[in-house]
Each structure stands twice: as C-alpha cells, then as structure tokens.
Design brief:
Blueprint (H helix, E strand, L loop, with lengths): L2 H10 L27 E4 L4 E5 L2 E6 L2 E5 L12 E2 L1
Length: about 80
Amino acid sequence: MTDYIMKSCKKSCGYCGPIEPKYDLNRLAPNLRPLAFLVGKWRSEQDGKAIFPTIPVFTYGEEIEISIPSDILRAQRALNYT
C-alpha cells in the first residue's frame, strides 16, 4: 500500500472503515453530484511565503474542507466550505 492510500482510504473508498457522514457521497443531493469531486480536505503541500516590507518573511500553509451538511438542516442543499 502507498502512503496516499494509508492516509486517505477512510475518506475516499471506505474499505478500511466507515465513511464520516460529512464525506459520504451517497448523501449528496442530486443537483450537487457534478461537484462531488470537491468533497474532502484539500491541503497545500508547498509552504507559501509572505513578503511584506514592514514585517519579517514568513511561510504558511493552507487547508480547506468541503463537506456535506448535516441532514438536520432544512435549507436548500449546498456544500460546506471551511
């Protein structure tokens, strides 16, 4: 097995364990299925570098999560972005 599979299996195929409801594509509304590939955690592997004239140079990373909202919500179906 590759490192990718070891880190990502539970969120992608579910073979190694249950899928968290917020990532379970079976719960995705039909009108959102074209965006299914976005569901999950996305993290930059390269450190960003910020350069400003008044503060020291620093590096940073970014991570976003796109998930399926709880079924408790009664609003129009959408994806959560955090």
